[in-house]
């Protein structure tokens, strides 16, 4: 991943907020929401690891 860590964090927060809002509005169940959030966490971890590697 080539984006800066602050950009990755912002994208993570936005995407997670969206997933939670969709759950709160009844558009997704808890399992689906948790799956989406886990995917976003993994993407953020990858961005953080890339940042540590100097990529």
TrEMBL record:
Q: Taxonomically, which superkingdom?
A: Archaea
Its name, as the record gives it, is Uncharacterized protein
Origin organism of this chain?
A: Halopenitus persicus
Q: What does the record give as the organism's lineage?
A: Archaea, Methanobacteriati, Methanobacteriota, Stenosarchaea group, Halobacteria
């Amino acid at each position: 991943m080539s984006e800066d860590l602050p950009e990755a964090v912002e994208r993570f927060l936005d995407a997670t907020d969206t997933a939670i809002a969709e759950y709160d509005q009844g558009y997704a169940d808890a399992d689906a929401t948790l799956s989406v959030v886990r995917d976003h966490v993994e993407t953020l971890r990858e961005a953080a690891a890339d940042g540590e590697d100097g990529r």
